[in-house]
Sequence to fold (90 residues):
Amino acid sequence: MSDPQPAPEVQAAPADATRPQTYETAAARVEEIIRRLDSGEASLNETLELVGEGKALIELCARELEAVSGALEELRLDELVARLENGTPA
Fold:
């Protein structure tokens, strides 16, 4: 009599295969990863893969937010310069 086969586990896709193109898709994937990890059903190997993927996605999101923040700061500075040049109070 053979040992019963373990139930198949959901495997995390490699980070390169699922690399999101936008902040929104990255954030949504991070939420999926958190739900999977919170479920307690992930194996140790899957947990390690998910944590690695999640870290990369969070870093991507942080870079995107930093770029947007920098762009907004530039806009504010441009507005301030324009106001000062026009004699309008800041």
